[in-house]
Inverse folding.
């Protein structure tokens, strides 16, 4: 029964630590725009740069 006197403070410290980490993540915008990172994989910007380089030059006289 005496182990409960040790486990309760440890549990309280862990819960407070988890709450602190959660609020830190919210303040540092970790949950803002969750979809953009997923779309970055699908729409790679490097493909557009390669296409623009291959375009032939036009001779406008």
């Amino acid at each position: 029964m005496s182990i409960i006197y040790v486990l309760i403070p440890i549990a309280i410290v862990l819960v407070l630590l988890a709450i602190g980490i959660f609020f830190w993540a919210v303040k540092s915008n970790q949950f803002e725009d969750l979809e953009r990172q997923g779309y970055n994989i699908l729409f790679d910007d490097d493909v557009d740069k390669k296409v623009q380089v291959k375009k032939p030059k036009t001779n406008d006289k």
